[in-house]
Amino acid sequence: MSGRTGRLPVPPARITRVLLAIIALGLLGATAFGLWHVVVGGLVNGNARAAAFGAVLALVAGVTLAAGVWLSHRRRSGAS
Fold first, then answer.
1. pTM summary value
2. Tens digit of pLDDT for each residue in 50-71?
3. Close Cβ partners of 27 (under 8 Å, ≥ 6 residues apart)
4. Could you give the C-alpha distances from 35 to 7, 24, 44, 66, in angstroms and in order?
């Protein structure tokens, strides 16, 4: 036996926070990427497909991020 106790070196709550932060940053990046397509692809270059792609991407990622933030605050405040 190697003497391990089976415990994680980092508390699970901290791992969860780090994973949620990574997901939030990914969603924020996807929102920015979508808005970039709307501005540069759609408005500057006149590419309607790029603008539509960017709008849908920004909308889906932004709404998902906003819902996550709302749920997080609701959970912390204890509201039901």
1. 0.79
2. 999 999 999 999 999 999 999 9
3. 61, 62, 64, 65, 68
4. 43, 17, 12, 16
